[in-house]
Structures are given as C-alpha cells and as structure tokens.
Amino acid sequence: MKIICIGRNYAEHIKELHNERPEEPVVFIKPDTALVPKGNPLFLPDFSNDVQYETELVLRINRLGKHIPRERAKHYYDAIGLGIDVTARDLQQKLKAEGLPWEKAKAFDFSAVVSREFIPTKAFGDLRNISFSLRIDGETVQRGNSRDMIWDFDELISHVSRYFTLRTGDLLFTGSPPGVGRLRRDTVLEGFIGNKSMFKIRVK
Question: How many structural domains compose the chain?
Fold first, then answer.
C-alpha cells in the first residue's frame, strides 16, 4: 500500500505559499509508515519548529491499474475519505531552496492522518462539488471544495497512473485548499466532509 500525494492543486493555496502554478500535477509519495495508527494521537516531530496541516480529500483505489485513460478513471476509485498531509514547512522550505527532494519534510513517520471511514462515491451527487473542512478546538481553520481543484479526480488518476501502477488499497491525497497553518500540541483536530465528522485526533 502506498500513499500518493498531489501538491499545488488549488490556485489559492499556490498563492498563499508563493509558489508558481505548475503545468501538470506535482506528485510525491509517502510510505505506509507515514500513516498515524488507528486510535493514536498525532505526534509532532522534534526536527521541525513549523509543522503544518494541509487538509485534503483522499481517494481509495479499488483495482489494479496502469496508463488509465481519463474516461476510465472513475472505475479505479470507489470511496472518498479525508486526510491531513502533515508538513514540516520550515524543513520543506530549506530543501526547496537547496533544490533537494521533499521527503524528509513530507514523508516522515506519522505525517499522514486518514479518516477511518470512507464514503462511497455513489453517495455523492456531484464529485465536482464536495465541501470539506478542518476544525481545531472547535474553530474552523480550513475550508475547501473539490470544484476549486485545478485537476479533478479523474485527471489525477490518469496522470499518476502513467508513472505508478495503482493497486487496490492505495490512497491518493488530492491536494490542499488555502488556509494551511501551524499545528500546536494539546489541540484537537476534527475533519469534516460536508457536515459529517470524518476524524478527530489530538496533537501531542
């Protein structure tokens, strides 16, 4: 099982981090050791002073696929969850400035929060209009909607499958909307798709 992540898929998020808009999706991978184990808190690493949340819709891959055409992509994911791409922002900026890969800032242990539950795609009326949000200690800090993606779900599946074989159980993080911010210890994160609570986790 692998976690494939998409960067810079929301125009306003690109602006808030002062990045350039890419010509194609930015792709990186987290190992399975990035997953926060079920029932565990989110432990902040000791190598960063600016660990940030990026709340994202997550596709669950349900079949083996390679070189998937866009028109067939909808058959390769069957449910949508919610996750947090936990990012060591200060370390990422340092690596970017040196022209180095991001793995140490993006793929470290426990850098991926994923909801226990996934909602079947057939339960959504329109996959291009899925709202989601993150609350910290009850206050909404980030909101997004799939309609604001630069590349939609099917385009992402098709693009990623050119480079990586998709396997049943793989997860695809689809990008973060604007509103990212610093995580602080002893706070509680709760993520929502629409009004449905998808996860609740304490930061330690």
Answer: 1
